[in-house]
Every structure is written in structure tokens, then in C-alpha cells.
Amino acid sequence: MTVTPISPTTEATANAAMELEPATAGQSTGQSTARSDSSTAAQTTDPIAPESTLEPILEPTAEPIARPRRLRRSATLRRMVAETVLTAKDLIYPVFVMEGTGLVEPIPSMPGCDRRSLDRLLEKLQMVQGVGIGAIALFPVIPPAQKDAIGSESHNPNGLVPRAVKAIKAAFPDLLVLTDVALDPYTTHGHDGIVDEAGRILNDETVAVLTQQALVQAAAGADFVAPSDMMDGRVGAIRQALDAAGFWQTGILAYSAKYASAYYGPFRDALDSTPQFGDKKTYQMDPANRREALKEALLDLAEGADVLMVKPALAYLDIIWQLKTQTQLPVAAYNVSGEYAMVKAAAEQGWIDERAIVLETLLGMKRAGADWILTYHAVDAARWLRERP
Fold it and tell me: Partners and quaternary state (predicted)?
């Protein structure tokens, strides 16, 4: 009920109308006249009476027409009207492969993740596929002895990545394998490209090597090659080379909007690929820029990319949404190592509910527009999703 004060003018008008009405039972005309006279006198002596002295009129409040809570009243109903649904099919699991046999090396800055020799990686992939994950992203740990200034090992047909791809596809033909096209795991200086005497990253010379790397990976059976280097024109050069060599079915997952981010630290620990000088800001994007991300994405689209990537994901949900709404290609988001490590560290301290935080975070990435999500949480998330009612 609401309380609506009646103004002096309204009260006088109401009293005047009462004088014209016949008296009702128990009420004489004289009483009505007296009330009218009394009200008129009050109006004359106190034309601006305080609201608190006025007699209120109670009126019923209209019931709300819309009640959004109706659709939240049970878990079943909430599931039926959910606008975004996260499943294991949305997830891609990044894995690290190393030379050797029987090796499993935990990564201290990424609890729950490890580097594995190929034989032990195949064992793990049995479990990965078993929880419903359909794709992996493969990253190599290259021994120091195989590194040089120009990343020559990156396009060795008998190198670690081609051998791993062949073995994985032989054991798990239905598992999609995405391979990283970049030089930083293979260079002594840790940069994604060839460096000149002045310390500058040479674009076109690097693209020529990346093209050879992509061809070797495609020949080994990679389903997607994923150039993560951020050199100009590399998507077009790789697409042309793949098609000319008959690998027209090999897709390109382009790291279209890869930012020069502080979130990559644990990943570089995993690959021992931290830059030995300077930083990557001359080729990776400035975190301040949004329009530039669309520019990069449209260039990659025009050059033949099949899927566009945003990396990192958590602080760049607006970029994911922008690429999703401004292009017609699928969009991938990389939930990177620093994002993963922060959640794991807080969970180990008991400060957060890891399961709830991970599933909410991944759902947010999908809600922003991600069709694929690369995440180190993939195996745990897939299990948790299975356990949901």
C-alpha cells in the first residue's frame, strides 16, 4: 500500500462535492456542512499546511507485470532457459611434450600440469579423450643443444613435433591436434622471430621460416597449424604454401589478437623460452588497443584463417565479443598460464572454491563469444561438467 497525502486544495474540492451529496445513514447534512466549514477555515488560516498534518489516502500498489525470478525458481528451469551452456566439447587441452622416455616433469608454476616424454604423453591422452575432450594443442620443450639463433630445428621433418603428431594421430585418429607455429621454443634468444644485429625482429625473414615449419607440421598430420608469432602476413603466406603443397584440408588457427601480456610467465617457464633480451612489444599487441584487434582479425580472415584467436582471455573478454560480432569465423580464446596459476594458487590457500571459479570463468569466456577455449583446466572442467545434474 502507498500513502498519498491530500493537498489543501484537493481537500476543499472534495468537501465542496460532499455538500452537494445527500446525507447518508448516520450522517446529517449539518455534519457535512460543519466539516466543510472547518476545512475552509483551516485552508484560510494555514494555506501551506505541513504534509504531516494531512490525512493520508491509502491506495493499492499495482502488482508487477514482469517477474524474471519466475524463471529462476528451480535448477531444472534455470537449465532449460540458460542462454550459454559450457561443455567438454568447447575445450582444448594444451600439452607439453619433451624428448626422452618415461619422463614426467611437473611444472612448479602451473600446479597440475607437466612436461612429458612422448610415451607418457600418449598415456595421458587416453585419459584426456576419455573425459570427452576432442582436441589438444601441442607445445614442444626443445633441448638447449637443438636451439640456435634462427630456429632451424622448427622445420626439421624428424623433429620432436612432427614425431609427436604422427604418434598421436596413429593412436588417437579422432583427436584433433593443433600445432604451434612460432620460433621462440627453438631460438637461443627466446623471441618469436629472427633477430638482426640491432636486436630488431625481422618480419619477412621470419615468415619464410614459419612457412617451412607449418608445412612440416601439416605433413606430419596436424589438423590445424596455429601461428602464434604475430608477424605481419604470415597467415597468407602459410595458407598459400599449404594449398600449393596439397594440404588444403589443414586448417589455420590464427593468433589474431595476441597481446604483449604479463599473463604468460608460467608458460615460458614450462618451455624455457623466456626472452633473453628486451620484450615482445614490437610484434605482440598493446593491451590498451581494441580497434587494432579487429584490424588484425580482418587481415587474418582475408589471408585465409579458419579460426581467430584471442590471447589472453580473462582480461580481454571485450575483444572476444568484438571478433565474434564483427566476423563470421569461429573465435577461440586462450585461458593462459597466468590466469590458470592465479586460480590454482588461491585454491591451494583455501581462499576460493576452485571448481566454481573455473566453471564460472570458462562460462564467461564462452558467453563473451568463444567457440573454442584453450585451457589448462580442461580435464578438471570436463570431469566437473559430467558430475553436474
Answer: Homooctamer.
Q: Which residue blocks in the chain are alpha helix, DSSP H?
A: 8-20, 29-45, 75-81, 118-130, 160-171, 203-220, 234-244, 265-271, 291-303, 317-326, 337-348, 354-368, 378-387
The phi and psi torsions of 42 (rounded to 5 degrees) equal -65, -40
pLDDT at 265: 81
CA torsion, ordered 229, 230, 232, 233, to nearest 10 deg? 60
**Interior CA angle at 50 toward 49 and 55, to 5°?**
90
Q: Of 221, 210, 218, which Cα lies nearest the Cα of 244? A: 218
User: Which residues have CB under 8 Å from 184's CB, separation 6+?
Assistant: 190, 191, 192, 229, 271, 273, 275
Q: How far apart are CA 283 and CA 195, in angstroms?
A: 12
Cell of 192: 618469436
Cell, residue 96: 607439453
pLDDT of residue 23: 41
Q: pTM for this one?
A: 0.82
Mind telling me the catalytic residues?
Answer: 258, 311
In which residue ranges of the chain is pLDDT below 50? 1-50
Cα(23)–Cα(19) distance, rounded to whole angstroms? 9
Dist. CA 217–CA 376, nearest whole Å: 23
Give the separation between CA 55 and CA 40, rounded to whole angstroms.
Answer: 15
Torsion of CA 9, 14, 16, 18, to 10 degrees: -170
Helix, strand or coil, per DSSP, at residue 139: strand
Interatomic CA distance for residues 213 and 274, integer angstroms: 21
C-alpha distances out from residue 324 to 310, 327, 373, Å: 11, 6, 14
Write the burial class of residue 156 (CB in 10 Å: 0-12 exposed, 13-18 middle, 19+ buried): middle
Burial class (CB in 10 A: 0-12, 13-18, 19+), 365: buried
Q: Is there a contact between 339 and 309 (Cβ–Cβ < 8 Å)?
A: no
Parallel/antiparallel/unpaired status of strands 307-311 and 91-98:
unpaired
- Looking at residue 301, its amino acid is L
pLDDT value, residue 189: 86
Q: Which among 317, 293, 307 is positioned nearest to 365, based on CA atoms?
A: 317
**Rg for the chain (alpha carbons), in Å?**
34
